[in-house]
Amino acid sequence: MEWRQCVTAPSKKFRGKYFIFVDGDDQLAPSFVEMLVKGLEENPDVDIASVGFSWGASGVPKKANEVRFRRVDRAAMFEGVTHRGHVISGMVWNKAYRSATLLNSRVCFDESLELAEDHLWIAQLVASKAISEYSIFTSDVLYNKVSRSTSIIHTALHALREREREIDQQIARIGDNII
């Protein structure tokens, strides 16, 4: 199932306590899921756990036997998910979410967008009052996003890039109430 469908109509899709999106051909450290779940289990007052990622690196991320999560407040998490190149990142794939919180947030994916849809979704989610004030993250790289030359991020034309800039401005306005 495509992740967009999950966050558009989540109540029928979520079955577990936690939800983690994984792009099928990306590369995960063997401990990826275990570390995210452990982070949320050990921090019951947070709703999002995030691990470090690489983009286009070769090979599977190294196994991490133990990672140290840091607590970050909503403003720091928002800053991290809205600035490209930040260790937290605006990707949805290097994070775990409490399923109940996703349902309560009522933040839905905008299916009309072709580019930056994940950035808008995660920004809206972090800004949602349904999400706890704190999240956790580690910079330990447990997720490698495979870069595809045919991906829309590499092939988008001017009009789509202009729409992406509009989305970035929308995200910045969301942040005006947080940061």
Short précis:
The protein is of the alpha+beta class and 179 residues long.
Protein described:
Helices cover 37% and strands 18% of the residues. It is α+β, with helices and mostly antiparallel strands and 179 residues long. Helix 3 packs antiparallel against helix 7. Strands 1, 2, 3, 4, 5 and 6 form a 6-stranded mixed β-sheet that branches. It has 7 helices and 6 strands. The protein has a single domain, classed as Spore Coat Polysaccharide Biosynthesis Protein SpsA, Chain A (Alpha-Beta Complex), CATH 3.90.550.
Distinctive features:
alpha+beta, Spore Coat Polysaccharide Biosynthesis Protein SpsA, Chain A, 6 strands, six-stranded mixed sheet, Glyco_trans_2-like, globular, 179 residues, single chain
Rg result: 16 Å
Tell me the span between the first and last alpha carbons. 34 Å
Number of helices: 7
Level-2 CATH architecture: Alpha-Beta Complex
Residue share in helices? Answer: 25-40%
**Major sheet summary line:** 6 strands, mixed
